[in-house]
Design a protein that fits this description.
476 residues, alpha/beta, Alpha-lytic protease prodomain-like, Alpha-Beta Plaits, three-stranded mixed beta sheet, 10 strands
Length: 476
């Protein structure tokens, strides 16, 4: 499979080749029409000469634009050089509109004057027939390449040459009426050449205004509202609560999309990443090869549980929360109780101030809660930890061995760790229990073990007991 760089090189070569072929065709047609226009004196053909001349200039500009727009992004052009194609299309539009003004002026002058003579011969019809064949061939080639690589510059060239087919057909009709006027002796039919020129100018003005509108829109980063709505609908992948912002811009053939989504704030980080990736893929299905940036904002969802709300709000205040309980009051309201963990470096006043601020925020977040009671406790995260003495650890292990030997406890402690924190002992160990034992009974048993341990070991602080089945399978 070709690399991305090789694919870009192939695209640039094909686009340049199409633009160069367009230049060669424009040179041939301009010279051919000029010779025949001078020979016949046909304003319709001379109008086509001017039109082809501008097409030649436009083709050269397109060739240069395609070359320059293919340059990669740099420090001064973070979105690349694709806008150069849009500028070249705008330049073509201005050239065409200026030429149309001259064609209209000359056509009106000839319609009001009887001094103009048009000599119709076979070469007049030949040059226009050749022009139609060449324009049809190169417009198809340019359209194919423009569609393949999403090039606005090549599309503008293709649009010009496809309209040239119709304008050339109009000129042939005008020349036919002039020829009939000479054969039938009806002078009024000779004016058909000037009328044909006006029709050509009208076609070119119409096409130029359409192209100019699209070009200006691209230069000011305008996109169809339908495209934005399509992208906004596509990024509503599973897990997205809302789409806050969708911005799309084009730079030549390149597309850029910035999307801002919301997800539930308790969504795991890995799942959030999966949601963002799915949104990127959805955008690229609409805009192939687009540079997509997805921002994900965590928000409180309508279906968020009370426990999650309490814990998330506590984390926002730099606190920890556990032991959350909700009770129905006789008055019909609800009481919420919880243990609130604060830094153990705080004073009572500082800890109470933090708890009060948290309680006030909690009432605003959960208006159904009438009363909030918090049990403030230190986290012990800021204390200096060190290994307990050998005597302390030996005492803890001795007590655990005694408890294991006692009937009814059913706990087999192992992987015992003892540390001293702020003058207190912290004990952590694993407790093997019957694998079929309900977790509620297992918790009751660990509470009994902890209670007995505290009764027999002095200065015992935090106790952490990890419950696991006898085979050693542990919870993650």
């Amino acid at each position: 499979m070709a690399s991305h760089g090789e694919g870009n090189s192939e695209a640039e070569r094909e686009k340049r080749g199409a633009a160069l072929n367009s230049v060669i065709a424009a040179v041939f047609l301009t010279l051919f029409k000029l010779v025949v226009g001078i020979m016949t004196g046909s304003l319709g053909i001379l109008a086509e000469v001017a039109h082809s001349g501008l097409d030649l200039v436009a083709a050269v500009v397109t060739l240069v634009a395609v070359r320059l727009s293919g340059r990669p992004a740099d420090e001064e052009h973070l979105y690349g050089h694709g806008k150069i194609e849009n500028l070249s299309a705008l330049f073509e539009t201005l050239l065409l509109l200026g030429t149309c003004a001259w064609i209209i002026y000359e056509a009106v002058r000839r319609l009001l004057s009887d001094e103009v003579h048009v000599e119709v011969n076979i070469w007049a019809f030949v040059v226009m027939g050749v022009a139609i064949a060449v324009d049809w061939s190169r417009s198809r080639m340019l359209y194919r390449t423009a569609k393949k690589y999403d090039s606005q510059a090549l599309e503008a060239d293709a649009l010009h040459f496809s309209t040239d087919i119709w304008s050339s057909a109009v000129v042939i009709v005008g020349l036919g009426f002039v020829w009939l006027s000479e054969r039938l002796g009806i002078p009024g039919l000779a004016k058909a050449d000037a009328i044909a020129a006006l029709i050509v100018a009208g076609i070119v003005v119409y096409v130029s205004l359409q192209l100019g509108t699209r070009t200006v829109a691209a230069l000011i980063d305008g996109v169809p509202a339908s495209l934005r709505e399509e992208v906004a609908h596509a990024v509503r992948v599973p897990g997205v609560l809302d789409v806050r912002q969708v911005r799309v811009r084009r730079s030549g053939p390149e597309s850029f999309a910035d999307v801002r989504l919301t997800v539930a704030r308790d969504t795991p980080l890995e799942r959030t990443h999966e949601i963002a990736t799915a949104a990127e893929r959805a955008v690229r299905e609409i805009l192939p090869g687009a540079d997509v940036v997805v921002q994900v904002d965590p928000v409180r969802s309508d279906h968020e549980g009370v426990l999650t709300s309490v814990r998330m709000l506590a984390a926002q205040h730099g606190l920890g929360a556990h032991g959350v309980r909700i009770y129905d009051l006789q008055s019909g309201g609800h009481l919420l109780e919880l243990h609130l963990e604060v830094s153990d470096t705080l004073t009572v006043e500082e800890a109470h101030r933090q708890a009060t601020a948290f309680e006030e925020a909690l009432r605003k977040t959960l208006p159904a809660i009438d009363q909030v009671t918090t049990h403030i406790e230190p986290t012990s995260d800021g204390l200096i930890r060190k290994e307990a003495s050998g005597a302390d650890e030996a005492r803890v292990r001795e007590v655990l061995a005694e408890l294991e030997a006692e009937n009814g406890l059913g706990c087999h402690p192992h992987e015992v760790t003892v540390r001293k924190i702020g003058g207190e002992l912290q004990v952590t160990f694993h407790c093997a229990m019957d694998a079929e034992l309900p977790i509620t009974e297992a918790h009751t048993l660990t509470e009994r073990v902890e209670s007995e341990l505290r009764n027999r070991v002095a200065n015992l602080g935090r106790v952490v007991i990890h419950v696991e089945p006898p085979n050693g399978e542990r919870a993650a």
